[in-house]
Design brief:
Layout lengths: L1 H17 L5 H5 E8 L5 E2 L1 H14 E14 L2 E12 L12 E13 L2 E9 L1 H7 L12
Parallel strand pairs: 1-6
Antiparallel strand pairs: 1-2, 3-4, 4-5, 5-6
Length: 142
């Protein structure tokens, strides 16, 4: 079961982020999905779909590498890295044409072959620094 759950997560990353297949959300994400973000916010499958669509629209040449995966019971911890080119607008900012790399760690609970709950920590500030929107800690005097 643990290997199967790892593969569910790998397929989810591949279908949604790399291939940009939004219809895959219905295949891999449960209808009663609950997500938890960096700030403690909670969101459902529709908001998850909007977030994935935002990434697909703003970034091309997306690739995800799975750096580590660990399984404990029905939970899979995945440390991953997304690389892409910023070629579309996002959050009011036009495309820069710059490459970006974002690291993240997801803890996903699997039931019935689908992700039913997810806790995710991503380095969004690092992406903003790569796009020139935020200074690096050194540039900011930190």
């Amino acid at each position: 079961m643990s290997e199967q759950n790892k593969q569910i997560l790998r397929k989810t990353f591949e279908e949604l982020l790399v291939r940009g297949n939004l219809s895959g959300i219905d295949d891999y994400i449960a209808s009663d999905f609950v997500g938890h973000d960096n700030s403690g916010g909670i969101f459902g499958r529709d908001e998850f779909r909007m977030g994935v669509a935002e990434v697909i629209d703003a970034f091309s040449d997306r690739n995800v590498s799975i750096e580590d995966q660990l399984v404990e019971g029905d939970k899979v911890v995945t440390r991953w890295k997304l690389t892409a080119m910023h070629t579309g607008p996002i959050r009011g900012m036009g495309p820069t044409g710059l490459p970006v790399a974002m690291m993240g760690i997801s803890i996903d609970r699997i039931a019935g072959g689908k992700v039913v709950e997810s806790w995710e920590v991503t380095d969004e500030a690092g992406v903003m620094r790569q796009l020139g929107v935020m200074p690096s800690p050194v540039e900011a005097g930190g």
